[in-house]
Write a structure and sequence with these properties.
Strand order of the largest sheet: 1-3-2
Helix content: 40-55%
Structural class: mainly alpha
Radius of gyration: 23 Å
Number of helices: 17
Distance between the termini: 68 Å
Number of domains: 3
Strand content: 5-15%
Oligomer: single chain
């Protein structure tokens, strides 16, 4: 198996912003500050006061840009204690980096060719896209009640019978997707990962803290076990980064809010015909050649609009006539196999009147940010978040 270093970044904009910062002649430390300034307000900017804040993100963004062939190779800090030696280092764009920046006037060609470069550079990304072409991935979320045994017994070894957990996982996957996984193989995948994680648990912490860590460990390890069964060579951290980056590029979409499921669903939102990689060319150079072969799957806005209304009207969890936007988005996007970005674009147009449904208008409400779990992005218009929506019957509105 070839090695593949996945950048541990949760936003593709880190790479885009780094490319522009290098063009502007900024140093490592100046790039770091630019990335801090570009973070969404929701992530908080107080971290900017820490002298080493976002050092690893800056390093990983630069390293990935070098891997793609957008920036000339140069030394980078491996640990935070090495930051001082690299703080004032500057970097240079390759000819391909310059060409990519010239594409920026056409946002979608820039992003699509960037996706091509990422796919060419990372065998694991290609494997993930290939697996999703044959069906979605679903990772059931384990709760405390799903883990057999009690805390006192866990000090001596793994919760047993572990087969209870693997059987529950495979049953949930089959109910959700129809895919049949082997409970025995899932258990075999779980054991070595759990044994390694068990050695790192601090049993002297408060019981509620240990319980939470064990449940998190089971969820992280179960993701890896299911991925291993599909011949995908990710750990939980790198898989989350891969999903975040490929989702930002429109290659796939994901949610933890598909109705009737308690877990994480990932599906494809693109088709690709990846050419054979040429060893003497950088991924960026090859991604710039010929026609674009990365294609985002699109549905007509009218179709999205109609299904949005249909799902709203059939929703059984309306409160005061309103539904949670992130839940409605999960229903529509999963059913159509589209990206959440397309749902948001359609809803914005319905709100500003540039897309009109024959029978219903929409009304958005700010609601409360507590309504949206951390795993889901709130719907926003010009930076203003809305959490709830309802439909207004046009005929009734005209009568009034």
């Amino acid at each position: 198996m070839s090695t593949d270093t996945i950048p541990k970044l949760n936003r593709i904009e880190y790479l885009f912003d780094t490319l522009g910062a290098v063009e502007d002649g900024l140093s490592f430390d100046e790039i770091r500050k630019e990335l801090i300034a570009s973070q969404p307000e929701s992530q908080g900017r107080k971290k900017a006061e820490k002298i080493d804040s976002l050092m690893t993100n800056t390093r990983d963004a630069l390293r990935e840009s070098m891997k793609l062939g957008l920036i000339n190779k140069a030394p980078l800090p491996t640990l935070k204690k090495h930051l001082e030696a690299h703080r004032n280092r500057k970097f240079e764009l390759t000819p391909e980096g310059v060409k990519f920046l010239k594409l920026a006037s056409d946002v979608w060609e820039f992003r699509d060719r960037f996706a091509q470069a990422m796919l060419l550079a990372h065998p694991h990304f290609r494997s993930l896209v290939s697996v999703l072409s044959s069906g979605e991935l679903y990772f059931p979320r384990i709760q405390r009640a799903d883990v057999p045994g009690e805390l006192g017994a866990w000090r001596g070894g793994l919760p047993e019978p572990l087969g209870k957990v693997s059987s529950w996982l495979t049953d949930e996957v089959q109910k959700a997707t129809g895919e049949e996984l082997s409970a025995d193989r899932i258990e075999s995948n779980l054991r070595p990962y759990l044994n390694a994680a068990w050695k790192k648990i601090d049993w002297d912490e408060k019981p509620n803290v240990v319980n939470k860590k064990i449940v998190k460990t089971f969820n992280d390890v179960s993701i890896r076990a299911i991925l291993t069964e599909r011949n995908l060579k990710f750990d939980c951290v790198t898989f989350r980064s891969a999903v975040a980056l490929l989702s930002d590029l429109g290659a796939l979409s994901n949610t933890h809010t598909v109705p009737g499921r308690r877990g994480w669903t990932v599906w494809k939102t693109s088709t690709v015909e990846i050419p054979q990689f040429v060893n003497n060319q950088s991924p960026a150079a090859q991604a710039l050649e010929g026609k674009v072969w990365f294609n985002r799957l699109m549905r007509p806005e009218e179709e999205i609009c109609d299904l949005l209304v249909e799902e709203f009207l059939s929703s059984s969890d309306r409160k005061g006539g309103f539904v949670l936007i992130h839940v409605l988005r999960a229903k529509v996007c999963h059913r159509l196999g589209i990206h959440s970005r397309d749902f948001d674009s359609t809803l914005r147009k319905m709100h500003d009147g540039s897309l009109v449904h024959a029978e219903y208008a929409i009304n958005l409400d700010r609601g409360s940010s507590n309504e949206v779990p951390p795993s889901e992005q709130p719907f926003a218009i010009k930076g203003r978040a809305f959490y709830l929506m309802t439909l207004l019957n046009r005929k009734l509105m005209e009568r009034n």
